[in-house]
């Protein structure tokens, strides 16, 4: 592959990049994490560029902020490259990839066996779709409880709160987790997603794994609990928490930080409750097990972990590519872009926007898979 390099460092503000048409990123999914800082430094030392051209991709809107930074950075440093990522949601993105209309898909859910089988029709040379974990995000529990800036909950109390079986903030079960805290005699208003989402699936995976008696429902993108109120998308849940004293809901950490919301610390059984932070979420990724085979890097998280400093509610987003037989017209550009996103610069950028970088041992495997994509093809 012929690599070109930019002649120098170029920094763009986010507004300037968008005004110049440097990014085509359409937020069609309800998890769109819009709201980056007004000025983001897109300069990178010695970024390796692929060939000039246009790359089409779509999928997970949970990684929209990360993709926005990645795309703008790559394009600011690699002249003649256009990366068009549409944040249509994981399901739509996977379907477009399986139809052969995009170079890769972003997904915050693992492909089904049927989807992997279907991918063999679009991946050439007996190839199939594989998962490349590229970013992770802590799912925070945001709440509106004046006078209570710090709050500890565990899986059992959270399950009962979201299933409408613990209904007041001064319930003995909550009080036992918060000794010395003056909890108000106030109704709890739990909010959940009205639309299907990977965020819901990951939260309910945590509840089901850590408190199966209190949350007997199988993990699902659709809400299975009883009672509570619903809102569309993470932004809708944020609005409900802001407007309703006594409310609690779940959304990506960036939403909580952007809106100044207090977030729950999770009592996992470790010595200290664990806060929703980038570092603590990265620790969860470091504990994840690769369950994919033959080069596939699908991960299994330990939602029931009791390790110190490990935040257990984390959403992983994957880039879906063919293990071999990617489209020869776009393979080199795809490889170059993903080499950047999986590289040190691309991963370092994640923490600045409330995403958790993938742990060193796993991201090294991702880099190996990307570097090996269809070598000699084209």
Automatic annotation (TrEMBL):
Residues 1-22 form the signal peptide. Residues 52-345 form the PBP domain. Keywords: Phosphate transport, Signal, Transport. Gene3D superfamilies: Periplasmic binding protein-like II (3.40.190.10). InterPro entries: ABC_phos-bd_PstS, PBP_domain, Phosphate-bind_PstS. Belongs to the PstS family. This is Phosphate-binding protein. It comes from Streptomyces chisholmiae.
